[in-house]
From TrEMBL:
Gene3D superfamilies: SGNH hydrolase. This is Triacylglycerol lipase. GO terms for molecular function: lipase activity. It comes from Medicago truncatula (Barrel medic). GO terms for biological process: lipid metabolic process. Belongs to the 'GDSL' lipolytic enzyme family. Coiled coil: none annotated. Pfam families: Lipase_GDSL. PANTHER family: GDSL ESTERASE/LIPASE EXL3, GDSL-LIKE LIPASE_ACYLHYDROLASE.
């Protein structure tokens, strides 16, 4: 279950919120149909921030102690230079494709990339971690970055961003950034149906409610 959500920080809502949400859904549809994507008039998206699991992860798992890694062949065989980058695919992943389609930059760097430059912060980064999920147990099973810890890194990112571009510019960027969250598949495929620990206490509808609560808590910053 992939969940695409646009979120805003408390106090940073802009009149473009609903427009951006519709546009994000248009992007997803356009990607699947190879349609041409055009920005709505007068809409500026300066950055993209991604959270979630392996669908979005652009290399964060490379730099943590976990068995869930993909920084080796044949991953990356279609990436520039055929280099495995920590993306769980053969080339660019959806977060890269969206940030490129928006004209922001070609690739969305991982926040934990040791080669991340201060200048990268102003156009967005990726906090996603392969095998993470809304269920708190999901990231613990394989020692990856939980959604809560991704949110903590995002708060750290805000401080760094303000240090690079100043508070006024940082506030503008955050108010107009597209936030992309994709998670849930590992909760169902791994935690619920493979490990089955949760099946002792949750049927499928109850587990879905647990995931919805996790997503809601993330959006509200209550993780």
């Amino acid at each position: 279950m992939a969940v695409l959500i646009m979120m805003k920080l408390p106090g940073t809502y802009s009149p473009n919120s609903l427009i951006l949400l519709r546009f994000m859904l248009l992007l997803v549809l356009s990607y699947r149909t190879n349609a041409l994507v055009k920005l709505p008039p007068n809409v500026t998206i300066p950055a993209l921030i991604a959270f979630g699991d392996s669908i979005m992860d652009t290399g964060n798992n490379n730099n943590i102690k976990t068995i869930v890694k993909c920084n080796f062949p044949p991953y990356g065989q279609d990436f520039e230079g055929g280099i495995p980058t920590g993306r769980f695919c053969n080339g660019k992943n959806p977060s890269d494709l969206i940030v490129e389609e928006l004209g922001i930059k070609e690739l969305l760097p991982a926040y934990l990339d040791p080669n991340l430059k201060p200048s990268d912060l102003s156009t967005g980064v990726c906090f996603a971690s392969g095998a993470s999920g809304y269920d708190p147990l999901t990231p613990k099973i394989v020692s990856v970055i939980s959604m809560g810890d991704q949110l903590k890194m995002f708060k750290e990112y805000i401080v760094k961003l303000k240090g690079v571009v100043g508070e006024n510019r940082a506030n503008f960027i955050l108010a107009n950034t597209l936030f992309l969250i994709v998670a849930g598949s590992d909760d169902l495929a791994n935690t619920y149906f493979t490990i089955r620990t949760r099946q002792l206490h949750y049927d499928v509808p109850a587990y879905a409610d647990l995931m919805v609560k996790g997503a809601s808590d993330f959006i509200k910053g209550n993780i």
